[in-house]
Amino acid sequence: MSARIGIVTFPGSLDDRDAARAVHLAGAEPVGLWHDDTALAGVDAVFLPGGFSYGDALRCGAIARFSQVMDSIKRAAGAGMPVVGVCNGFQVLCESHLLPGALVRNAHLRYRNRPARLRVETDRTAWTRLYEPGTEVVFPAKHGEGRYVADEATLDELERTGRVVFRYLDNPNGSMRDIAGVTNEAGNVVGLMPHPEHAVEALTGPSTDGLGVVASVLTHLSEGVSR
Amino acid sequence: MARVVVDVMLKSEILDPQGEAVLGALPRLGVGDVASVRIGKRVEIEFDEHAQNIEEQSRVIADQLLANPVIENFTVSIEQGSTETGPVGAP
């Protein structure tokens, strides 16, 4: 039986269907999760999609953090379940303290939507284990609040422990140290601003590089690591 | 009824591009002697008349929701029996 990957729909989520399609194309079964569900429907991993949850009220991701489903996801992530957050999903993970740092307004104050060239910095996460470290990938980026910030001590710690997962080759938003994505200590929770789920088909994406994200977690799950 | 005002500001080390944009527009207003502009949020909270532990609850609201401690600082001011011009407590 193929792995089941839950995709959360918050009020204002936009990319949940694209995420479901990417999960399907990569060979897993997408399972819709609703923001006020407490049960995770027996999924093996969770994908928090992009969008504008709760209208970005207060700060991006600040209200989604208090949704019912996030309580369950936090517990599951603590027990090792793989969780990836893309764009608004990354913002939700930072606001939920599952990942360090924060995402603030782009330094140039403009919404930026174009393909982003990234370097995959590590294969030591559940969501990147099939990428050779140093591989260049192209994922679409589309955000107004994607500038990754954290204090210098946190940034040094992330670098020292190999927890910077994706780095921009042409920093589109002023992110500190060109950081596009990070992981938690255990490597099961990953967040990134650019969208791997929009880079899964030649017809609609700039590449098919994004398939590796879901393929990585399938490998991770099939090997029974941190399940 | 107690009114509480929470001011939330980006930490000084975090770049504030909105403030920079405002600063950049000031010369067009004819104002040339401004060194810095930083933009924050002011949040007004009204507790109902039976509320207890207003200061403690206000700090929970500010610390866990209104401000993100990674990037922002906050101050809490309580106006007891407040009117528009009521006294403002120490932050």
TrEMBL record, chain A:
GO terms for cellular component: cytoplasm. It holds the Pfam family GATase_5. It comes from the Bacteria. Keywords: ATP-binding, Cytoplasm, Glutamine amidotransferase, Hydrolase, Ligase, Nucleotide-binding, Purine biosynthesis. The keyword Ligase applies. It is found in: Cytoplasm. Its EC number is 6.3.5.3, 3.5.1.2. The keyword Hydrolase applies. InterPro entries: Class_I_gatase-like, PRibForGlyAmidine_synth_PurQ. GO terms for molecular function: ATP binding; glutaminase activity; phosphoribosylformylglycinamidine synthase activity. One of its GO terms (biological process) is 'de novo' IMP biosynthetic process. Pathway: Purine metabolism; IMP biosynthesis via de novo pathway; 5-amino-1-(5-phospho-D-ribosyl)imidazole from N(2)-formyl-N(1)-(5-phospho-D-ribosyl)glycinamide: step 1/2. It catalyses: N(2)-formyl-N(1)-(5-phospho-beta-D-ribosyl)glycinamide + L-glutamine + ATP + H2O = 2-formamido-N(1)-(5-O-phospho-beta-D-ribosyl)acetamidine + L-glutamate + ADP + phosphate + H(+); L-glutamine + H2O = L-glutamate + NH4(+). The active site is at 87 (nucleophile), 195, 197. Part of the phosphoribosylformylglycinamidine synthase complex involved in the purines biosynthetic pathway. Catalyzes the ATP-dependent conversion of formylglycinamide ribonucleotide (FGAR) and glutamine to yield formylglycinamidine ribonucleotide (FGAM) and glutamate. The FGAM synthase complex is composed of three subunits. PurQ produces an ammonia molecule by converting glutamine to glutamate. PurL transfers the ammonia molecule to FGAR to form FGAM in an ATP-dependent manner. PANTHER family: PHOSPHORIBOSYLFORMYLGLYCINAMIDINE SYNTHASE SUBUNIT PURQ (PTHR47552). Part of the FGAM synthase complex composed of 1 PurL, 1 PurQ and 2 PurS subunits. This is Phosphoribosylformylglycinamidine synthase subunit PurQ.
Automatic annotation (TrEMBL), chain B:
Its main location: cytoplasm. Belongs to the PurS family. Keywords: ATP-binding, Cytoplasm, Ligase, Nucleotide-binding, Purine biosynthesis. NCBIfam families: phosphoribosylformylglycinamidine synthase subunit PurS, PRK05974.1. Part of the FGAM synthase complex composed of 1 PurL, 1 PurQ and 2 PurS subunits. The lineage of its organism: Bacteria, Bacillati, Actinomycetota, Actinomycetes, Glycomycetales. HAMAP family: PurS. It catalyses: N(2)-formyl-N(1)-(5-phospho-beta-D-ribosyl)glycinamide + L-glutamine + ATP + H2O = 2-formamido-N(1)-(5-O-phospho-beta-D-ribosyl)acetamidine + L-glutamate + ADP + phosphate + H(+). Pathway: Purine metabolism; IMP biosynthesis via de novo pathway; 5-amino-1-(5-phospho-D-ribosyl)imidazole from N(2)-formyl-N(1)-(5-phospho-D-ribosyl)glycinamide: step 1/2. One of its GO terms (biological process) is 'de novo' IMP biosynthetic process. This is Phosphoribosylformylglycinamidine synthase subunit PurS. GO terms for molecular function: ATP binding; phosphoribosylformylglycinamidine synthase activity. The keyword Ligase applies. SUPFAM superfamilies: PurS-like. Part of the phosphoribosylformylglycinamidine synthase complex involved in the purines biosynthetic pathway. Catalyzes the ATP-dependent conversion of formylglycinamide ribonucleotide (FGAR) and glutamine to yield formylglycinamidine ribonucleotide (FGAM) and glutamate. The FGAM synthase complex is composed of three subunits. PurQ produces an ammonia molecule by converting glutamine to glutamate. PurL transfers the ammonia molecule to FGAR to form FGAM in an ATP-dependent manner. It is an enzyme of class 6 (ligase).
